[in-house]
Amino acid sequence: MSVNQPRRSFCPACERLIPWYENVPVLSWLFLRGKCSGCGNPIAVRYVIVEIVTSVLFACVTLKLGATNFPLHAAYWLLVSLLTVATFVDLEHLIIPDEVTWGGVGAGLVLSPLIPALHGAPSPLAGLAQAALGAAAGYGLLWAVAEVGRLAFGRQTHRFNPPTLLVWTRSGDEAQMVVEGETLQWGELFARGTEKVVMQILSGKVDGKPTTSPMAIWKFERLELEDSQLDLNAVDRVEFEISSLTLPREVMGFGDVKFLAAIGAFLGWKSVLFTVMAASVFGAAFGLLTLLLRKREWSARIPFGPFLAMGALLWMLRGPELLHAYWQWTLHFAAQG
Predict the structure, then answer these.
(1) Can you list the pairs that 131-134 forms with residues at least 24 positions away whose Cβ atoms lie under 8 Å?
(2) What pLDDT digit, counting tens, does each position of 182-237 carry?
């Protein structure tokens, strides 16, 4: 969506442009009781939460940096905005847009030589080098985690007793698979394009024609049966009664990989290591909380991006001090035997 057209915020229900006096952050939402003054439809509380979180984080950055060096403030405010957008989009849609990730990498590389203090560098060239190293470290670290995880845990097999019905349908260039009430989007299953979906078949139909093949191997554009290979671009509907289903699985989305690269471009390679460690602690604590509350469904599809954002924010505000305190504690512990 363009930031220039429409030129102002609008109601997501009736698309009425919101006048300036109804567009004051937080206050307008409270005054209108969370409803559009035109159509009366509710305006999601997410808007006011984002406004409050962003303002609080901007204030924290200002308190951290003091009243001097406005360019450094602006760079940190930009990063805070990117982290906030990534968090709320990832929570709702389980993606982090390239405008945030690659855009963040580009912004970090551009700003680092203009504001060498962003990395504590003595010169513009040194600032650019630190940004490039941070971006490479962020991308490389999580890329390695994703690749090793895919090799170790890249497949997930579901067995059905009694057998269950699986329905695959195509609509134009989009397709989806429905099994036991759960809808799987075809593009999400084949994010790399090289994955396979394997299933054991008891009976089935392809566009209404019965098949006796005991196994099916699905690729992005091809269905391989025992006696034939079908171009999925020419198939509209498949119905199989299956006893098992093996799906490809990613342990980490590549949005997270690019997101950490953006963090590294702004904050350097040390921040990458700290962010991953802190994000892992936050994620583990959340997982433990869901177990204690017996709400495991809360963590079933929680993305890693928000935890990365929390780790990066912690580094921005207190990271070097916390890292120094950790090493001091480690040395003291080692000295005590």
Answers:
(1) 131/264, 131/265, 131/266, 131/268, 132/265, 133/264, 133/268, 133/269, 134/108, 134/263, 134/264, 134/265, 134/266, 134/267, 134/268, 134/269, 134/271, 134/272
(2) 888 888 788 777 889 999 999 999 999 999 899 999 999 999 998 789 999 999 99
How far is the C-alpha of 293 from the C-alpha of 285, rounded, in Å? 12
**Sign of the alpha-carbon dihedral angle for 227, 232, 238, 240:** positive
How many angstroms separate the first and last alpha carbons of the chain?
Answer: 60
Q: Looking up tokens 């392809």, which residue turns up?
A: 206
Q: Which two tokens stand for residue 295?
A: 């709400």
CA 240/CA 199 separation, integer angstroms: 9
Taking only the tens place, the pLDDT of each residue in 153-180 is: 878 899 999 999 999 999 888 899 999 8
Max CA distance (Å), the chain: 75
Look up tokens 């554009």; give the residue.
Answer: 221
Q: Which tens digit of pLDDT belongs to each residue from 233-276?
A: 999 999 999 999 999 887 777 899 999 999 999 999 999 999 99
Q: Which of 102, 88, 100 is nearest to 44 (CA)?
A: 88
